[in-house]
Amino acid sequence: MDVKLPNLGEGADSGTIVSILVKEGEEITQGQNLIELENGKAVVAVPSPVGGKVGNVLVKVGDKISVGNVIVVLEGAVGTASKLSEPSVAPVKASRVPGIERTEQVAAGEAEQKSLAEPALKDSPFPPPASPTVRKIARDLGIDLRRIKGSEHGGRIVLDDVRSYIDRLQKLGSTSTKASAKPAETSVAAVVSIDFSKWGTVTRQPMTSLRKTISRRMVESWTTIPHVTQFDEADISGLMELRKKHKAAYEAAGASLTVTVFVLRALLDTLKQHPIFNASIDESKNEVVLKDYFHFGIAVDTEAGLIVPVIRDVDKKSMAQLARELSNIAVKTRDRKVGLEDLVGGSFTISNQGGIGGAHFTPIVNKPEVAILGLGRGVLKAAVKNGKIEPATMLPLCLSYDHRLIDGGSAARFIKDLLTALENFNEENLKL
Amino acid sequence: METIKTEVVVIGAGPGGYAAAFYAADLGKRVILIEQDKRLGGVCLNSGCIPSKALLHTTKIMAEASESGFRGIHFGAPRVELNELRAWKDGVLTKLGGGIAQLAKARGVEVLTGRGRFEDSRTLRVESASGQQFVTFEKAIIAVGSRPALPRAFDLGNPRIMTSTEALEIPDIPESLLIVGGGYIGMELGTVYARLGSKIVVVEALGSILAGADPDLAKPVLAYAQKRFKEIRVNTKVSKMATSGKQIKVSFALADGSEKSELYDRVLVAVGRVPSCDDFGLENTKIERDEKGFIKINSRQETAEQGIYAIGDVAGGVMLAHKAHKEARVAIEAMTGDSSEFKDIIIPAVVFTDPEVAWCGLTETEAKARGIAVEVSKFSWAASGRALSFDRPDGLTKLIIEPETERVLGMGIVGAGAGELIAEGVLAVEMGATAADLAACVHAHPTLSETVMEAAEAFYGHATHTYSRRKRSHE
């Protein structure tokens, strides 16, 4: 049987092998440690779930493995009822049957799907028992017959077995698609048309392509990112004073000094202290990509729908430049004049609803970014300062983040530092 | 000078080459088949399989006649007219060769008689008696075959030292014939000449004759040869040959290190075959050859030169016509974009000695060498009514079975007509049949094929015509 890396607990679903504790041909007992795995938190030993003779060790020191990867193949495993073992062959790589590869990855370690997964067959030095015709069909389809259990005497594989194997793969394929990164099509496909006119007159409009894109991206982000939103309120009374003081000079310089400009600047300083908020997850490699650049997406509310153009190199621009660029890009966006190049490459997004109204909300992370800052309308509230109640302009802040990468503590620290940067805004930054 | 353009050119019209040419034509390709010999069919038809079987058949009649006296049928001494025998044999070859030419014509395959040589990777120059022609092609199949090896030390230019090609012509019936090499060619031709009356000595460098066959299958052949040949000398090498009047003086290096020399009327050198692709212009292509000179190919018969394939003897591996035939199909299918591969294909081996030996799939010897656990189920022909009815109980049918799955992995047969019986083994192994499947099929009585069924039944311990204490239930 194949011994796979089990789930060792939260955040320990993968790691780097630091040592291998068994040799090929060695008899091992149940519970004996197979490898030591470093998973970022600690070095843990991985025990064998059963005893037996070590056939093949399929990993080496330095390998990065994750839950479901086969560590060793045990011969004559003790503790399992079946004398047959799972195939020690690698999943079909250049498979021509759509969905097979993904299926096999997803199938690993998922108990619910286990009943659907391939039967275990022993590794034989001979080709699988099947007629030349069936072998030809399998070759044409890129199917490894060793993964199919034949229904005839001696395990002989007939065309019906191949057929039911393909059926099973398709079933698995659709199951895994639901849980995988492309649920949009699936959910659309699953939806039935409802006749709303039964309850009154309706007008039907086609969904614009922008709306479809927004829909697809929101669903993808929402279903793949575990979202948490951190709320707070910043006292921007001081900031508003600074704004009043410098507004005219900025206007003279052709720049409109909005609260968003202040936030852009405060956010830049905060992100420099918390680079994980300016990062992405490379899901294909299981790597974290930390960015040295600061390109901020600005959510712009247009008649057609939400568009998020990007202001590049925020760290290299003065507040006046940022202010000019912010108003330019907003106009350009509302006029639908932004190009594709203006919409890509963002590292963090800001969604400011303050111009319209409203307080806290829960923005959705703009994938592949890992965090987004939502701003509500700054309103005068009664605030307690030095034991006295005073009026203060309070700005609602809503920080949504990808909990896969960012922990709650980090988010609390981030918003605290952002609060400080806004409440004690450095006037130096405003120099023209 | 004329240049012909074609889609596919096949060089060599042996059983691989003409099969490839015909198949390509059947799939709608324009095909040119180049053959240096006037008679199509290659070594197999002209100086191999077919003439040797014709001679074995004819001489078998003599052997059977001379051995039937004790059954009450008496013949006089046979009179052998070699001219008539050769003429009959040549008639068979001409008929078959003509048949191939007709089949080529019917398919529109153009046959060029001449010697092909690669000018570059897309051009062949064909030299014939009437001049030369150039053929440019999109795809080429090299099927130029092999020729008998004649080590330089033996190549004295003396016609008394023969290879199988000359021996099949039966220039005379030598009083004494030395056969160098106890493989299938040496043993088959030894059988022919022994029946014709020559005193045969077989010398083999290895420890046994018919290397490759399981010892229990080779045993009846050895027993027959020991009775009808003068001597089988294993672990012995021929160190030198020299002309000595109308004879050949042969020096032997014996196993114990000593030397001895003897005089023979003729010597047949049957020490293997070499690819016949020298002076073929391969250097003008990217085609690579291995250290023994065979053209290197992958599992789709492709050479290192894109668009050029090699099949049959020249591509190495077992040198058998039916292997070349299968490779022809793989090459054409690969050429036309099919997924075909020469992989996991069962190639039966047949030795037409007396008795015949045939096997396919896994042999017992190979299973032992590779440490594969198998069960061997045997049925002796001594218990076969059919075998006794023609007085040949010296046969054995055995199955090599994977114990866990009961799957038939190989079959081995020794006995009269083994070559015909092996087909069932090939089918069983290719189809992944189990011993139970073979046992369940009704085999006609009285035929030798029953031995296959009984060998399968013996695996379960309930063959009708043999008794075993061992019992094993069908699944």
Give me a quick take on this structure.
The complex is a heterodimer of chains A (432) and B (475). By secondary structure, chain A is α+β, with helices and mostly antiparallel strands. Chain A is 30% helix and 23% strand.
Please give a structural write-up:
The complex is a heterodimer of chains A (432) and B (475). With 432 residues, chain A is α+β, with helices and mostly antiparallel strands. Chain A has 3 domains: 1-85, Beta Barrel (OB fold (Dihydrolipoamide Acetyltransferase, E2P)); 98-180, Dihydrolipoamide Transferase, CATH 4.10.320.10; 211-430, 2-Layer Sandwich (Chloramphenicol Acetyltransferase), CATH 3.30.559.10. Chain A is 30% helix and 23% strand. Chain A has helices at residues 100-107, 111-114, 132-141, 159-179, 183-190, 209-224, 237-252, 259-273, 319-334, 408-423; strands at residues 2-4, 14-20, 27-28, 33-38, 43-47, 51-57, 64-66, 70-78, 227-235, 279-282, 287-290, 296-298, 300-301, 306-307, 310-311, 348-352, 371-375, 379-385, 388-402. In chain A, strand 13 (300-301) and strand 14 form a beta hairpin. Chain A is elongated and about 90 Å long. Mean pLDDT of chain A is 81; it is low at 79-117 and 180-189. Chain B has helices spanning 17-26, 42-47, 49-66, 82-107, 164-167, 184-196, 215-228, 321-335, 364-370, 385-389, 418-431, 435-440, 450-459; strands at residues 2-11, 31-35, 110-113, 115-120, 123-128, 131-142, 146-148, 161-162, 176-180, 199-203, 231-233, 237-244, 247-253, 259-264, 266-269, 273-275, 308-310, 349-351, 357-361, 375-380, 396-402, 407-414. Chain B has 13 helices and 22 strands. Helix content of chain B is 31%, strand content 25%. By secondary structure, chain B is an alpha/beta fold. In chain B, strands 1, 2, 3, 4, 5, 6 and 17 form a 7-stranded mixed sheet that branches. In chain B, strands 8-15-9-10-11 form a 5-stranded parallel sheet. A 5-stranded antiparallel sheet of chain B has the order 18-19-22-21-20, with helices on both faces. In chain B, helix 1 (17-26) packs parallel to helix 4 and helix 1 (17-26) packs parallel to helix 8. In chain B, strand 4 (115-120) and strand 5 form a beta hairpin. Chain B is globular. Chain B folds into 3 domains: 2-148 and 274-335, FAD/NAD(P)-binding domain (3-Layer(bba) Sandwich), CATH 3.50.50; 152-271, FAD/NAD(P)-binding domain (3-Layer(bba) Sandwich); 355-459, FAD/NAD-linked reductase, C-terminal dimerisation domain (Enolase-like, domain 1, 2-Layer Sandwich). Classes of the chains: A alpha+beta (432), B alpha/beta (475). Chain A binds chain B through residues 122, 124-132, 135-136, 139-140, 150, 152-157, and chain B through 339-341, 344, 362, 370, 372, 402, 404-407, 409, 430-434, 436-437, 475.
